[in-house]
Please model this.
Amino acid sequence: MKKILAFNGSPHTNGNTSLALKVVTDELNRNGVCTETIQLGGKYIRPCLGCRKCFELKNKSCIIKDDKINELILKMDKSDGFIIGSPVFTSNVTAAVKAFMDRTNFVAKANGFMFKGKIGAPIIVATKTGANFAYSAINFMFGISDMITVGSTYWNCAFGKMPGDIFNDKEGIEGFVRLGNNIAELLQKI
Ligand SMILES: Cc1cc2nc3c(=O)[nH]c(=O)nc-3n(C[C@H](O)[C@H](O)[C@H](O)COP(=O)(O)O)c2cc1C
Model:
Protein backbone atom coordinates (compact mmCIF):
# COMPACT_ATOMS: atom_id res chain seq x y z
CA MET A 1 0.00 0.00 0.00
CA LYS A 2 1.27 3.49 -0.86
CA LYS A 3 2.06 5.74 2.07
CA ILE A 4 2.03 9.52 2.38
CA LEU A 5 3.28 11.38 5.45
CA ALA A 6 1.55 14.60 6.55
CA PHE A 7 3.70 16.98 8.61
CA ASN A 8 1.96 19.56 10.76
CA GLY A 9 4.22 22.58 11.20
CA SER A 10 1.79 24.43 13.46
CA PRO A 11 2.21 24.29 17.21
CA HIS A 12 -1.57 23.75 17.35
CA THR A 13 -2.42 20.08 17.13
CA ASN A 14 -6.05 20.90 16.35
CA GLY A 15 -5.62 24.18 14.51
CA ASN A 16 -6.24 25.18 10.93
CA THR A 17 -3.14 23.46 9.51
CA SER A 18 -4.08 20.21 11.19
CA LEU A 19 -7.66 20.50 9.91
CA ALA A 20 -6.39 21.27 6.39
CA LEU A 21 -4.07 18.26 6.46
CA LYS A 22 -6.97 16.10 7.62
CA VAL A 23 -9.07 17.13 4.63
CA VAL A 24 -6.28 15.89 2.35
CA THR A 25 -5.45 12.72 4.30
CA ASP A 26 -9.16 11.79 4.53
CA GLU A 27 -9.34 12.04 0.76
CA LEU A 28 -6.19 9.96 0.38
CA ASN A 29 -7.52 7.30 2.79
CA ARG A 30 -10.82 7.24 0.87
CA ASN A 31 -8.75 6.45 -2.24
CA GLY A 32 -6.90 3.59 -0.54
CA VAL A 33 -3.71 5.48 0.35
CA CYS A 34 -2.25 4.99 3.81
CA THR A 35 -1.29 8.18 5.69
CA GLU A 36 0.49 9.13 8.88
CA THR A 37 0.32 12.59 10.41
CA ILE A 38 3.40 13.78 12.26
CA GLN A 39 3.51 16.79 14.57
CA LEU A 40 6.45 19.17 14.01
CA GLY A 41 5.21 22.41 15.54
CA GLY A 42 5.86 22.73 19.25
CA LYS A 43 8.32 19.82 19.20
CA TYR A 44 12.00 20.05 20.04
CA ILE A 45 13.73 20.35 16.64
CA ARG A 46 17.17 21.91 16.48
CA PRO A 47 18.09 24.09 13.50
CA CYS A 48 20.71 22.94 10.97
CA LEU A 49 24.29 23.59 12.12
CA GLY A 50 25.52 23.96 8.55
CA CYS A 51 28.43 21.62 9.42
CA ARG A 52 28.01 19.54 6.23
CA LYS A 53 28.95 16.41 8.19
CA CYS A 54 26.09 14.62 6.41
CA PHE A 55 28.08 15.00 3.16
CA GLU A 56 31.20 13.61 4.85
CA LEU A 57 29.61 10.70 6.69
CA LYS A 58 26.94 9.77 4.12
CA ASN A 59 25.18 7.59 6.67
CA LYS A 60 21.62 8.83 6.02
CA SER A 61 21.57 10.74 9.27
CA CYS A 62 22.24 14.11 10.84
CA ILE A 63 24.94 14.44 13.52
CA ILE A 64 22.42 16.09 15.84
CA LYS A 65 21.05 13.10 17.72
CA ASP A 66 18.96 14.58 20.51
CA ASP A 67 15.79 15.20 18.53
CA LYS A 68 13.53 13.17 16.21
CA ILE A 69 14.91 14.29 12.83
CA ASN A 70 16.83 11.06 12.11
CA GLU A 71 13.75 9.01 12.91
CA LEU A 72 11.76 11.20 10.51
CA ILE A 73 14.37 10.85 7.74
CA LEU A 74 13.98 7.06 7.95
CA LYS A 75 10.19 7.37 7.76
CA MET A 76 10.47 9.76 4.80
CA ASP A 77 12.84 7.37 3.04
CA LYS A 78 10.29 4.56 3.32
CA SER A 79 7.30 6.70 2.28
CA ASP A 80 5.99 7.48 -1.19
CA GLY A 81 5.83 11.19 -0.46
CA PHE A 82 4.94 13.87 1.98
CA ILE A 83 2.70 16.85 2.51
CA ILE A 84 4.24 19.63 4.55
CA GLY A 85 1.66 21.90 6.18
CA SER A 86 2.48 25.22 7.77
CA PRO A 87 0.59 28.22 9.04
CA VAL A 88 2.09 31.51 7.94
CA PHE A 89 4.20 32.96 10.73
CA THR A 90 5.59 36.43 9.93
CA SER A 91 5.11 35.92 6.21
CA ASN A 92 6.78 32.52 5.96
CA VAL A 93 6.78 28.94 7.28
CA THR A 94 7.13 28.31 11.02
CA ALA A 95 10.60 27.88 12.49
CA ALA A 96 9.87 24.18 13.05
CA VAL A 97 9.13 23.63 9.36
CA LYS A 98 12.25 25.54 8.33
CA ALA A 99 14.53 23.52 10.63
CA PHE A 100 12.85 20.29 9.51
CA MET A 101 13.30 21.13 5.81
CA ASP A 102 16.92 22.28 6.16
CA ARG A 103 18.02 19.15 7.95
CA THR A 104 16.02 16.44 6.17
CA ASN A 105 16.71 17.90 2.74
CA PHE A 106 20.46 18.19 3.32
CA VAL A 107 20.81 14.62 4.60
CA ALA A 108 18.73 13.39 1.64
CA LYS A 109 20.91 15.26 -0.85
CA ALA A 110 24.12 14.06 0.84
CA ASN A 111 23.00 10.48 0.40
CA GLY A 112 22.25 10.40 -3.33
CA PHE A 113 18.93 12.26 -3.24
CA MET A 114 16.95 9.93 -0.99
CA PHE A 115 13.69 11.73 -1.81
CA LYS A 116 14.04 11.33 -5.60
CA GLY A 117 10.73 10.54 -7.30
CA LYS A 118 8.67 10.99 -4.14
CA ILE A 119 5.57 13.15 -4.18
CA GLY A 120 5.54 16.49 -2.39
CA ALA A 121 2.81 19.01 -1.71
CA PRO A 122 2.79 22.13 0.46
CA ILE A 123 -0.29 23.19 2.42
CA ILE A 124 -0.52 26.67 3.83
CA VAL A 125 -3.00 28.45 6.09
CA ALA A 126 -2.85 32.17 6.76
CA THR A 127 -5.01 34.91 8.18
CA LYS A 128 -4.17 37.38 5.47
CA THR A 129 -0.68 37.79 4.04
CA GLY A 130 2.40 35.73 3.26
CA ALA A 131 0.90 32.46 1.99
CA ASN A 132 2.87 32.72 -1.26
CA PHE A 133 6.21 32.97 0.54
CA ALA A 134 5.47 29.97 2.76
CA TYR A 135 4.10 27.97 -0.19
CA SER A 136 7.23 28.73 -2.22
CA ALA A 137 9.59 27.92 0.66
CA ILE A 138 8.20 24.38 0.83
CA ASN A 139 8.07 23.96 -2.95
CA PHE A 140 11.68 25.10 -3.14
CA MET A 141 12.63 22.22 -0.86
CA PHE A 142 10.82 19.73 -3.11
CA GLY A 143 12.39 21.35 -6.17
CA ILE A 144 15.94 20.72 -4.97
CA SER A 145 15.17 17.21 -3.76
CA ASP A 146 14.37 15.63 -7.14
CA MET A 147 10.73 15.29 -6.07
CA ILE A 148 7.44 15.51 -7.96
CA THR A 149 5.18 18.33 -6.78
CA VAL A 150 1.42 18.10 -7.00
CA GLY A 151 -0.98 20.96 -7.53
CA SER A 152 -4.69 21.50 -7.48
CA THR A 153 -7.11 23.86 -9.20
CA TYR A 154 -5.93 26.58 -6.88
CA TRP A 155 -2.71 26.84 -4.81
CA ASN A 156 -2.97 24.68 -1.70
CA CYS A 157 -3.77 27.56 0.66
CA ALA A 158 -6.74 28.49 2.83
CA PHE A 159 -7.46 31.49 4.97
CA GLY A 160 -8.52 31.66 8.59
CA LYS A 161 -7.39 32.95 11.93
CA MET A 162 -8.81 30.90 14.79
CA PRO A 163 -9.01 27.06 14.66
CA GLY A 164 -11.79 25.98 12.30
CA ASP A 165 -11.98 29.29 10.43
CA ILE A 166 -10.59 27.73 7.27
CA PHE A 167 -13.88 25.89 6.77
CA ASN A 168 -15.36 29.29 5.83
CA ASP A 169 -12.93 29.34 2.92
CA LYS A 170 -14.93 27.08 0.63
CA GLU A 171 -12.58 27.45 -2.31
CA GLY A 172 -9.57 26.62 -0.15
CA ILE A 173 -11.19 23.45 1.21
CA GLU A 174 -12.26 22.36 -2.29
CA GLY A 175 -8.64 22.77 -3.34
CA PHE A 176 -7.46 20.49 -0.52
CA VAL A 177 -9.98 17.79 -1.51
CA ARG A 178 -8.83 18.05 -5.10
CA LEU A 179 -5.20 17.85 -3.96
CA GLY A 180 -5.91 14.59 -2.11
CA ASN A 181 -7.46 13.15 -5.26
CA ASN A 182 -4.59 14.33 -7.44
CA ILE A 183 -1.99 12.76 -5.15
CA ALA A 184 -3.91 9.46 -5.12
CA GLU A 185 -4.21 9.55 -8.91
CA LEU A 186 -0.51 10.27 -9.34
CA LEU A 187 0.43 7.46 -6.95
CA GLN A 188 -1.37 5.02 -9.23
CA LYS A 189 0.57 6.25 -12.25
CA ILE A 190 4.08 6.11 -10.84
C1 LIG B 1 3.58 34.31 15.50
C2 LIG B 1 2.50 34.36 14.46
C3 LIG B 1 2.76 34.99 13.27
C4 LIG B 1 1.78 35.05 12.29
N1 LIG B 1 2.06 35.70 11.12
C5 LIG B 1 1.12 35.76 10.15
C6 LIG B 1 1.40 36.40 8.91
O1 LIG B 1 2.49 36.90 8.63
N2 LIG B 1 0.42 36.44 7.97
C7 LIG B 1 -0.82 35.90 8.20
O2 LIG B 1 -1.66 35.97 7.32
N3 LIG B 1 -1.12 35.27 9.37
C8 LIG B 1 -0.17 35.18 10.34
N4 LIG B 1 -0.45 34.53 11.51
C9 LIG B 1 -1.79 33.89 11.69
C10 LIG B 1 -1.78 32.37 11.40
O3 LIG B 1 -1.16 32.07 10.19
C11 LIG B 1 -3.24 31.90 11.37
O4 LIG B 1 -3.89 32.19 12.58
C12 LIG B 1 -3.36 30.41 11.05
O5 LIG B 1 -4.69 30.10 10.74
C13 LIG B 1 -2.92 29.58 12.25
O6 LIG B 1 -2.93 28.21 11.90
P1 LIG B 1 -2.93 27.05 13.01
O7 LIG B 1 -4.29 27.10 13.66
O8 LIG B 1 -2.70 25.80 12.26
O9 LIG B 1 -1.82 27.37 13.94
C14 LIG B 1 0.50 34.47 12.52
C15 LIG B 1 0.25 33.83 13.73
C16 LIG B 1 1.23 33.77 14.69
C17 LIG B 1 0.94 33.06 16.00
User: Anything to note?
Assistant: The pocket of flavin mononucleotide is lined by residues 10, 12, 15-17, 87-91, 125-130, 160-161, 163 (CB under 6 Å).
